[in-house]
Amino acid sequence: MKVEVRTHESDDLLHSLVHELEKHVPQEAREDLKEMANIKYKIDNRMRTQKAISPKDVERFNSLCYKHFGKIQDGMEFSPEKKQKPQAESGRIPYSERRRVYEVAIDRYGIEAQLRMVIEEMSELTKELCKYFRGADNIEAIADEAADVTIMLEQLRLILGINDEVNEHMDAKVQRLDGKLGIEVPND
After folding, report:
1. CB 54: neighbour CB atoms within 10 A?
2. Of 8, 41, 60, 132, which residue is 20 to 30 A from 140 by alpha carbon distance?
3. Hey, CA dihedral for 11, 12, 13, 17, is it positive or negative?
4. Quick one: angle between helices 139-160 and 95-109, nearest 10?
5. Are 100 and 121 in contact (CB under 8 A)?
6. What CATH number does domain 95-181 carry, 1.10.287, 1.10.8, 2.60.40, 3.40.50?
7. Beta carbons within 10 angstroms of residue 65's beta carbon
């Protein structure tokens, strides 16, 4: 989920819009709108001065968006919908077919963009895991992000030509873990 912060909008305009909205919304929403305007003002100032933006401010702004703006606002998704579990139309997709799709994606978007996506998808999974540890019921979101990470790692292996090397390292690490746990994993 991303929230676009536009720094070219006038802070006065934002506050006047909030003031106008206040006339038409319940008291609780008025307070939230004021808080959102203040957070946006802080974010804009931090962006102008090229300082780090507080993740707490972004998270609070996002939670207020979820609370008041429903599913879609200006073409951006603000509230997570309860989705049905995704299913491939014809069952599981074999690796050979996934690889063909990956090759097209790499060709279309470029190597650098896909490598950056690896990092982005890993950070999104990290975020969902952090939410889980704070008590969120987000197993489906974790599964979704884990799928994204797996897809991007498969592309990473393809881009760098390291499929065999990754498999060898995985085998060695599983064998080392096997030794630490005192169990025996058979080799093929």
Report:
1. 13
2. 60
3. positive
4. 70
5. no
6. 1.10.287
7. 19
- The CA distance from 70 to 65, in Å, is 8
| Residue 77 β-bridge partners | 72
**Tokens 């946006």 appear where?**
40
Structural domain spans, the chain: 11-77, 95-181
Global model pTM greater than 0.70: no
Query: Which tens digit of pLDDT belongs to each residue from 31-68?
Result: 877 788 888 888 777 777 777 777 787 778 777 776 76
Residues 6+ apart with CB under 8 A from 101: none
Give tens-digit pLDDT for 118-177.
999 999 999 999 999 999 999 999 999 999 999 999 999 999 999 999 999 999 999 999
